[in-house]
Amino acid sequence: MFLDCGMKPECLERTHACTGRTCKLHAERPRPGIEPRTFLLQDLLPSKNGEETTLQFLLEVVEILTSYVRKTFDRSTKVLDFHHPHQLLEGMEGFNLELSDQPESLEQILVDCRDTLKYGVRTGHPRFFNQLSTGLDIVGLAGEWLTSTANTNMFTYEIAPVFVLMEQLTLKKMREIIGWPNGEGDGIFSPGGAISNMYSVMIARYKSFPEVKTKGMAAAPRLVLFTSEHSHYSIKKASAALGFGTENLILLKTDERGRVIPADLEAKVIEVKQKGYVPMFVNATAGTTVYGAFDPINEIADICEKYNIWLHVDGAWGGGLLMSRKHRHKLNGVERANSVTWNPHKMMGVPLQCSAILVRERGLLQGCNSMCAGYLFQPDKQYDVTYDTGDKAIQCGRHVDIFKFWLMWKAKGTVGFEQHIDKCLDLSAYLYDKIKNREGFEMVFKSEPQHTNVCFWYIPPSLRGMPDGKEKRERLHKVAPKIKAMMMESGTTMVGYQPQGDKVNFFRMVISNPAATRSDIDFLVEEIERLGHEL
Amino acid sequence: MFLDCGMKPECLERTHACTGRTCKLHAERPRPGIEPRTFLLQDLLPSKNGEETTLQFLLEVVEILTSYVRKTFDRSTKVLDFHHPHQLLEGMEGFNLELSDQPESLEQILVDCRDTLKYGVRTGHPRFFNQLSTGLDIVGLAGEWLTSTANTNMFTYEIAPVFVLMEQLTLKKMREIIGWPNGEGDGIFSPGGAISNMYSVMIARYKSFPEVKTKGMAAAPRLVLFTSEHSHYSIKKASAALGFGTENLILLKTDERGRVIPADLEAKVIEVKQKGYVPMFVNATAGTTVYGAFDPINEIADICEKYNIWLHVDGAWGGGLLMSRKHRHKLNGVERANSVTWNPHKMMGVPLQCSAILVRERGLLQGCNSMCAGYLFQPDKQYDVTYDTGDKAIQCGRHVDIFKFWLMWKAKGTVGFEQHIDKCLDLSAYLYDKIKNREGFEMVFKSEPQHTNVCFWYIPPSLRGMPDGKEKRERLHKVAPKIKAMMMESGTTMVGYQPQGDKVNFFRMVISNPAATRSDIDFLVEEIERLGHEL
Fold it and tell me: Cα(B135)–Cα(B510) distance, rounded to whole angstroms?
């Protein structure tokens, strides 16, 4: 590393960062008399004369990263190079995960970087469909690189002036899109949808029983929360963590395609009230994790208004559809919610993490969470300290999650997000149409997908003639895991599977990846057939 | 942008990334006949033929970032270019924070990146002392760039195999350093010390009253938590959020230099028990936020053992001293804690965020938080699913905070962290010695600092002759904010201030910045004198 090969112009043409190690010409014609030197961390800034070494080191890292990015979008690259935990722990050809007392050379650090990527998963690959967050947006990536370089903290305007304002403006824009008058209200970016949902429960409790903040749950009657049996498990996590108890979270029945049945909610609210408990919080999901179902928000809002219950909309996954004139009707009624979770890192393709909790009533976040730490939120600063947002948060330090999102919004415009979302939904309709009547495929529910989730079983030929029953179910339950394991081992594509209720393991295809095209959908279907045919 | 200036070799020599815009030669001798083209997001990958544009765009971003890094370490650069919120919101010369429907060109995106850094705060500047997290580690930065490029999620081995193993090995190493036998136990990286502390309270509750998870706080007697009056406000936030109520958090008295008085703890535990409540949790702080005090862990542990109370050590700030053979005795007894918070993003200089919660007993994190989401934690995967750690967390998606830390550990070795910590503590001793008897300076407490916190008042000449009393106190209270405001407006340095208890506003100097030297300490002292002399 860092050996000047003496033929900069030529190798620069190729790599944009001249170093002896990456220059082929150099390898062929080593410059006589120059020995490579080992560089260490202490050769980097802030050490004296560390500037050039720092620049070269960072450029070498960037060379590794850009080469990774380029290959990620190349369909001939594998999605992953699978190894079992024990294989990686034992060490792969010079890649040793163990930490030691003595420093490694910067040369070895670069090798470690390359190996870390080599044995990882390319979540930006056009054929990676495994999670709700997929894809690699180049502007978002640039935004995240800048964020790391700025290396600051969201708690005060003092040390994050630009980012704090970007957050404020972006949250306002999101509230306008939700439909709250003039974008009024409040909100904060949090480390993921689970924490955003936890905020909603905390704020709802504070709104009804503010004394819980000081006196604890003992100051409130027995409080009950409601959410769909298809909703995300974070609502359950919140009910456990915040002291409600999971038994006080009541699961609501859903229709065949996973949407809450409002009548079931009302019946359960009445039942709870008859027991003398207090129905406090309803979560309506806009885009469930597995089926992609949108609960009927307006009908749920009617019930919440009637019984004076906080309505939260978990749009972690489906919130992005608000950006699309064609699809936003699926969230009709969202403007009646008291709070909304919306994760731009899912359907909007923003790099991880980027999740917002939005609250209709101003002041609740602050009232619920503020503890007025004197060392951080001094009232006698020279600027308008209402911009110090940290005391609203349950975190103290808070990562800058806004910049990449703001930068992407600048680069795409609102219309760019809309195009991306419409394209993903078109692709999922294409997949649905392709497999709904295809031999060997069976849909988990019959109606068209509301979101990009397409849930299906692949039935291998050996099971196709079998009568329905326990044996077929048991065998079918094993099909998706087997195909998935083969997919991962061959590294060709990745898609999720799971059981749901009484339904045995099925594939859940989701599309949020901007790199995916119809040909990738075709590939996935054919790959499932190829791998599953003999099962 | 992206205009080939036709003189690549020359300008590459200068910038390592040839673009028309940054090449001075080009500006002087524009190549005739070539017009700059406006590039947009859709020219980048994954679009067809987007490879070259993507590479050039990213290299231009890197050019902005490396130039920022270089200037950050240059003492002639300002720490910040202060503007009030309304100024930035009104828009600064072409820097418009508002989001719009239509996309901006990539050229404008680069300008936005440059401006975002321009109006921000250089937290890596050698004279930035404002927070517990300061400095910019180049290897850590490279690690964070890689993390963003990998853009994955910690919840499963499936999509983060390497990172999950790195986390496991690093947590084990940290537990060994704490002194738990064979590094046994458990832990997780969380988004900041406040959440790590919240975990500790949750786990403590689960250990004593596991039924709270399902039945809520009503299933437990009245539970009481204890922490120092000097401890971090996150303990109070946790007691509010988790349903204990802040009134059930009892603040412990401290000695003159901010350490808990163990006898006060025991007296209060007895009092609580006499009332029939249950003392459940004691937080001992290793390195308080303002004074940098270390509570006497062994004496507190004796009391916790005697009364069967969970002992948590909040080492968010002071945990790093465990890496130093010279200073780790300040945490003597930490191995007796049931849980420990330790933020490598503070004293160890890891980029934000990187915080660990470590737990002595295995299984509690899982027991407390697991909800067994079928769509994520399938039991029938082909690999050993005990590596899927997501169900331990209160988050669902979890950012990869481990890689930058792991990579820094590789590059520095354990000894490198030790050197860094010893150097910071030496610098704070230097500051203490310099000002303890200096005219115009008065220490907030007399004894030598235990950590790098040095707390002092600057007394301007106009106040020096005044008798102690209300008027002097009121005037002195305004001195630190005024000096701080002038510092920020001149952009020369940044240091925090706050009141504490009955003590009026004083400066809290903290040193975690690896770029700081004695000359920067000298500068700070002289700058305070220069700015405060006329007050």
Answer: 12
CA dist B427 and B89 (Å) reads 39
Q: Is the separation of the CB atoms in B245 and A213 below 8 Å? A: yes
Mutate to test the interface with A, among B40, B121, B165, B493 (most CBs of A within 10 A): B121
Could you say which of B12, B382, B413 has the minimum Cβ distance to residue A101? B413
- The percent of chain A in helix, strand and coil, each rounded to the nearest 5, is 45, 15, 40
For residue B499, pLDDT over 80 is answered with: yes
Give backbone dihedrals phi and psi of B345, rounded to 5 degrees, phi first. -75, 0
- Look at residues A236, A197, A240 and name the one whose alpha carbon lies nearest to residue B243: A240
* Beta carbon pairs, A and B, within 8 Å: 532
Nearest to B192 among A397, A415, A416 (CB): A397
Residues in chain B within 8 Å Cβ distance of A382: 481, 484-485, 488-489
Q: What is the pLDDT of residues B249-279, one digit of tens each?
A: 999 999 999 999 999 999 999 999 999 999 9
pLDDT in tens, B127-155: 999 999 999 999 999 999 999 999 999 99
CB nearest A17 (choices: B16, B119, B384): B16
Which of A5, A101, A151 has the highest number of chain B CBs within 10 A, making it the mutation to test binding with B?
A151
CA-to-CA dists, residue B513 to A217, B70, B128, B180, B451, angstroms: 42, 16, 8, 30, 14
Q: How far apart are CA A231 and CA B344, in angstroms?
A: 35
Q: Round to whole Å and give the CA distance between A75 and A80.
A: 12
Q: Is B418 left (phi over 0), alpha (psi -120 to 50) or beta?
A: alpha
CB B392 within 8 A of CB B185: no
**Integer Cα distance of A239 and A223 in angstroms:** 10
Q: How far is CA B413 from the centre of its chain?
A: 21
Helix (H, G, I), strand (E, B), or coil: what is residue B499?
strand
Tell me: pLDDT of B485 over 50. Answer: yes
Cβ atoms < 10 Å from Cβ of B323: 23
Q: Residue B357's closest CA among B401, B302, B327?
A: B401
The C-alpha of A461 sits at a distance from chain B's nearest C-alpha, in angstroms, of 22
What confidence tier does B94 reach under pLDDT thresholds 50, 70, 90? confident
Q: Which of A501, A435, A506, A509 is closest to A476 using CA atoms? A: A506
Measured between CA atoms, the residue of chain B closest to residue A140 is B148
Band (B36; pLDDT cuts 50, 70, 90): low
Nearest to A229 by CA among A273, A283, A267, A277: A283
Q: Which residue has the tokens 């832990």?
A: B187
How close A477 gets to chain B, by Cα (Å)?
A: 10
DSSP string, A156-224: -TTT-HHHHHHHHHHHHHHHHHHT-GGG-SEEEEESSHHHHHHHHHHHHHHHH-TTHHHH-GGGS--EE
Contacts of A66 in chain B (CB under 8 A): 54-55, 58-59
CB A249 within 8 A of CB A239: yes
The alpha-carbon gap from A228 to the nearest alpha carbon of chain B, in Å, equals: 14
Q: Give whole-number Cα distances, B402 to A422, B147, B163, B377, B514, in Å.
A: 35, 9, 7, 21, 20
CB contact under 8 A, A99 and B170: yes
Rounded CA-CA distance B337/B331 in Å is: 11
Strands (E), A204-285: 223-228, 249-252, 278-285
Query: Closest approach of chain A CAs to the CA of B36, in angstroms?
Result: 19
Q: Which residues of B431-443 are buried (b: 16+ CB within 10 A; e: fewer)?
A: bbebbeeeebbeb
What strand order describes the sheet that includes A339-342? A186-190, A355-359, A339-342, A310-315, A278-285, A223-228, A249-252
Cβ-defined contact of A151 to B351 (cutoff 8 Å) = yes
Dihedrals φ, ψ of B399, to 5°? -65, 150
Q: Is residue B188 a contact partner of residue B199, using CB atoms and an 8 Å limit?
A: yes
